[in-house]
């Protein structure tokens, strides 16, 4: 199967975790787009969704799925999203689509994070994928120096030759050269650096389940 077909398969498989009568948390990205398309087939069973990005909101609404503001919801049964990397404990790196802050906000509302990914995203140690960090622009250089002290190399993410601007009006640093041996401690530390809005390590909001698309079909990992 192609990578696109694997994404569609795990997107469909995630429907089994959607709780009838409950609002569902929806992430962002190419794999989640497959889930949103599948979700349309059962949209009459749910009151709506809380979305982690403008792009996902537009896709949900185009398919007739109501989108609620996160402030209107006290909890979610599940949050379904992809990952750029996931290790064998359910810790993830996310933010390749620049939606990491809103993703983490919606994930924190959910009882369970269901990760959907293809097998290429599974790693032993987080850090091979450039780590996204959403930052306030005036702090970008000093945050880059802090990562350099850890052996990392941070660059400002560009779009059309200019710094990419997130849905929150901020910038993204992508950090290479890291091997994140203790994701929870790393996330806690970087979150304290002045100017960091969100670091793309999801350890405190780790996955409870990962639906992994493989050539043999969908593999279910529980953490």
Automatic annotation (TrEMBL):
InterPro entries: NagB/RpiA_transferase-like (IPR037171), Ribose5P_isomerase_typA_subgr (IPR020672), Ribose5P_isomerase_type_A (IPR004788). Pathway: Carbohydrate degradation; pentose phosphate pathway; D-ribose 5-phosphate from D-ribulose 5-phosphate (non-oxidative stage): step 1/1. Transmembrane segments: none annotated. One of its GO terms (molecular function) is ribose-5-phosphate isomerase activity. Its EC number is 5.3.1.6. CDD domains: RPI_A (cd01398). Keywords: Isomerase. The active site is at residue 103. The keyword Plastid does not apply. It catalyses: aldehydo-D-ribose 5-phosphate = D-ribulose 5-phosphate. The keyword Isomerase applies. It comes from the Bacteria. Substrate binds at residues 28-31, 81-84, 94-97, 121. Pfam families: Rib_5-P_isom_A (PF06026). Catalyzes the reversible conversion of ribose-5-phosphate to ribulose 5-phosphate. Belongs to the ribose 5-phosphate isomerase family. Homodimer. This is Ribose-5-phosphate isomerase A. The lineage of its organism: Bacteria, Pseudomonadati, Pseudomonadota, Betaproteobacteria, Burkholderiales. The gene is rpiA.
């Amino acid at each position: 199967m192609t990578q696109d077909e694997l994404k569609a398969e795990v997107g469909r498989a995630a429907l089994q975790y959607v709780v009838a009568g409950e609002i569902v948390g929806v992430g962002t990205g190419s794999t989640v787009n497959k889930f949103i398309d599948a979700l349309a087939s059962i949209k009459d069973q749910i009151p709506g969704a809380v979305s982690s990005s403008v792009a996902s909101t537009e896709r949900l609404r185009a398919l007739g799925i109501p989108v609620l503001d996160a402030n209107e919801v006290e909890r979610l049964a599940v949050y379904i999203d992809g990952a750029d990397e996931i290790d064998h404990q359910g810790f993830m790196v996310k933010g390749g689509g620049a939606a990491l802050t809103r993703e983490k906000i919606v994930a924190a509302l959910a009882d369970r994070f269901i990760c959907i990914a293809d097998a290429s995203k599974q790693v032993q140690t987080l850090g091979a994928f450039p780590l996204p960090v959403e930052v306030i622009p005036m702090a970008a250089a000093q945050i880059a120096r802090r990562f350099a002290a850890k052996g990392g190399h941070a660059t400002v993410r560009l779009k059309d030759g200019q710094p990419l601007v997130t849905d929150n009006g901020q910038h993204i640093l992508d950090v290479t050269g890291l091997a994140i041996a203790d994701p929870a401690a790393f996330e806690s530390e970087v979150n304290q650096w002045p100017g960091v809005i969100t670091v793309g390590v999801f350890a405190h909001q780790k996955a409870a389940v990962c639906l992994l698309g493989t050539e043999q079909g969908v593999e279910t990992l529980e953490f």
